[in-house]
From TrEMBL:
The keyword Membrane applies. GO terms for molecular function: undecaprenyl-phosphate glucose phosphotransferase activity. Residues 259-441 form the Bacterial sugar transferase domain. This is Undecaprenyl-phosphate glucose phosphotransferase. It comes from Croceitalea marina. Its EC number is 2.7.8.31. It comes from the Bacteria. The lineage of its organism: Bacteria, Pseudomonadati, Bacteroidota, Flavobacteriia, Flavobacteriales. It is found in: Membrane. It is a multi-pass membrane protein.
């Protein structure tokens, strides 16, 4: 299904980018602009379009976004795009270029993108309304005027794509917060909307912890209570203000697209630049030392708590404990070549295939064995928050020294602390910093890489 059900539809933004770039380049090719250097002009307008779109958040449109906001984005995008296009004449000394033709070009692009954007917006709304795709299951906690307004939005504005499951009233004597949690899990609810005025501080904390540990999106209907010291994000559902507790940077389509594009480029470079010749050599050495497969393939927990097959070069003799027991110091299962490739992290290189296939990212929280996910989810508070993003080959916790065997509770607690910081504070520069530090650590060798 093209528009999958989930936190965001990962293909919509890349598809929109691609389609708009085709339009601006197609019209530039066929309209009589008279540029002398076509390749330079096409490259220039493509980069300009992407940079402007990123700056004005042109492609960040939510299911509850109003038409007026889309119009504002369109005019903002084309105001700067028109200026940049005209600047080409002065920057690259193009006296033969027709300014009138450039004005017509910008106008035609505006009309084409305008029509395309609203047709796409309309079709997506109809897709949610008629076909019931791209749906999010929701529950409402509270029974007052504001919650009823919100429920009316969910039930009447079907084009938003919300499936209202149930309303819980904390005012009633029979209200039981655990029954509420069980219903949410059983009915695969995606988002929880709480009226702050009807919940105690203890209940609010319970909902926050439950949402964090079960990968649920939690939002609040505000009142005048000062309940949180951290910054909250305001959103409007048909003029009704909603507070979002946690803003995950990688849930932004543009950020997700940027990270995925980097992952694909980086993984292709490693696969065809290194693995294509290095893997056969290492495979021969591994096979000569011990019998068994070249690759160690293990089920691990990934994005949104989904299982995937994680690839590594085999560094141990074949054993029955591989899926249950982590490698420890002086572990007898580790082979001689295995000690070297584990210490230098070479054993992780096949995970670039996971990155290319979309199971992993170059940078992110390290994926854990299924056994450890079940164990730590019940043991470490907010552990499941790390699954809001794709797992990584390397991560912030790893470059800060928390990698390898979990010897005591503080090891996993500190690792999760760094994982959550990464999830909540992701940036492209942070990824580059982690990659650079990982390379340095790999060259120097790491103490806990055994």
């Amino acid at each position: 299904m093209f528009f999958k059900q989930g936190r965001y539809s990962g293909f919509i933004t890349p598809f929109s980018y691609g389609l708009d770039l085709v339009i601006i380049n197609f019209l530039a090719y066929y309209l009589p602009i008279n540029f002398l250097t076509p390749y330079l002009f096409h490259t220039y307008i493509s980069i300009a379009w992407i940079v402007i779109a990123f700056s004005v958040e042109f492609y960040i449109i939510y299911r509850y976004t109003k038409v007026t906001h889309i119009l504002k984005l369109l005019f903002r995008q084309f105001f700067f795009y028109g200026l940049i296009v005209y600047a080409f004449i002065g920057f690259f000394k193009q006296p033969n270029m027709s300014r009138l033709a450039l004005a017509k070009y910008v106008a035609f692009v505006f009309i084409a993108v305008f029509i395309l954007k609203f047709v796409f917006y309309y079709l997506l709304m109809k897709y949610r309304e008629k076909i019931k795709g791209n749906i999010r299951n929701v529950v409402v906690i509270g029974d007052n005027k504001k919650t009823q307004q919100l429920i009316n939005v969910f039930t009447e504005r079907t084009e938003y794509g919300y499936d209202f499951k149930k309303q819980f009233s904390p005012k009633k004597d029979e209200f039981n917060i655990m029954d509420c949690f069980r219903f949410i899990v059983k009915n695969n609810v995606d988002e929880i909307y709480c009226s702050v005025s009807e919940l105690t501080n203890t209940q609010i904390s319970a909902f926050i912890n439950f949402a964090d540990n079960n990968l649920k999106t939690l939002k609040f209907l505000p009142d005048n209570k000062n309940i949180f010291s951290k910054k909250l994000k305001f959103e409007y559902y048909d003029y009704l203000p909603i507070l979002s507790l946690r803003d995950i940077p990688l849930h932004s389509p543009i950020n997700a697209f940027t990270k995925r594009a980097f992952d694909v480029i980086f993984s292709v470079f490693v696969i065809f630049g290194i693995l294509i010749w290095f893997a056969p050599i290492l495979a021969l050495i591994i096979r000569l030392e011990s019998k068994g497969p070249i690759f160690f393939i293990q089920k691990r927990t990934g994005f949104d708590n989904r299982e995937f097959q994680c690839f590594k070069f085999r560094s141990m003799a074949v054993n029955e404990d591989a899926d249950h027991k982590q490698a420890g110091k002086n572990d007898m299962r580790v082979t001689k070549i295995g000690k070297f490739i584990r210490r230098t992290s070479i054993d992780e290189l096949p995970q670039f295939y996971n990155v290319f296939f979309g199971n992993m990212s170059v940078v992110g929280p390290r994926p854990h064995m299924l056994k450890h996910t079940d164990e730590y989810a019940n043991k470490v508070d907010k552990y499941m928050l790390r699954h809001f993003v794709k797992p990584g080959i390397t991560g912030l916790a790893q470059v800060r020294g928390y990698r390898g065997e979990i010897e005591q509770d503080s090891d996993i607690q500190n690792r999760i602390k760094f994982d959550i910081f990464y999830v909540e504070n992701w940036s492209f520069l942070l990824d580059l910093k982690i990659i650079f530090q990982t390379i340095l650590n790999g060259i120097a060798g790491e103490e806990k890489a055994y």
